[in-house]
Design a protein that fits this description.
It contains eleven helices and twelve strands. By secondary structure, the protein is an alpha/beta fold. A four-stranded parallel beta sheet has the order 1-12-10-11, sandwiched between helices. It has a four-stranded parallel beta sheet with strand order 3-2-4-5. A four-stranded parallel beta sheet has the order 7-6-8-9, with helices on both faces. Helix 3 links the parallel strand 4 and strand 5. Helix 4 runs parallel beside helix 5 and helix 9 runs parallel beside helix 10. The termini are close together. The model has no long low-confidence stretch (mean pLDDT 94).
Length: 284
Amino acid sequence: MKEIIKSTVLGFCFGVRRAVELAEIALTENKEKKVYSLGPLIHNEQCLNELKKKGLIIIDEADIHSIPDESVVIIRAHGVSLNVVKILLKKRCNIIDATCTRVKASQKIVEKESLNKVILFTGDSNHGEVKGIASYAENGNFNLIQYLEDLKRLDEKIIESENILLLSQTTFSSEEFEKIKNYLLKKNPKANVINTICSATKERQTALLNLCKVVDGIIIIGGRNSANTNRLYQIAFNNCKRAVHIETASEIPCEFFCMNKVGITAGASTPDEIISEVEKELLK
């Protein structure tokens, strides 16, 4: 008989759940008004489609000036740049800030510490969270490090600076962060390091590594454009016999129905109902 083993940690994290709940409340309380989200509220297409059906209008940040004055605007879980906030305030919008509290904390750290420190930040240059946090850096004191090689290419004067601080995108790879941190501290033992990777991200990655040891294959459920989901897939791909990244139950590869033990995990933006649908489909 097939055994489905779910990861001990999977699905919605606190920040995502809070963002979705704030959007639900905003849509309920503003039925006569248009409710906007600057960029995707979270990185899950199925969840966003449900919110769209209820009236949420997702608009690109580049089109912010098209939002009417005094509109209801939700700031997504990944946060936005400081300039975007200033524009919304100028337009007298009713801002509902759904920025994850951990992302908000990183914004404040960068805003304060960049005044007299050089900031090194591990993360993906194309990610909304990183772009938003970078906008809070004063005097251009922000250096993005996506891979260890990026750090090695930095000017030695920067790496050896007495006032240097290493931070991270909340969904960055814990393994990659450790490599970067260790190299930095070897070069500069006085460097300040604050590991701002979200505990939910670390817990999911650790739980997945344990799951890889006891199953024939692993299904990772989540949005194609979800950074933390893609990192889970990479971990599973490197540590399990067979791994696949899907968004819905209809995408389950045929071979998984023939396995004795199938592991399931999901990104932090994946709703519980989608996880349940995948599990039910496997057990048919």
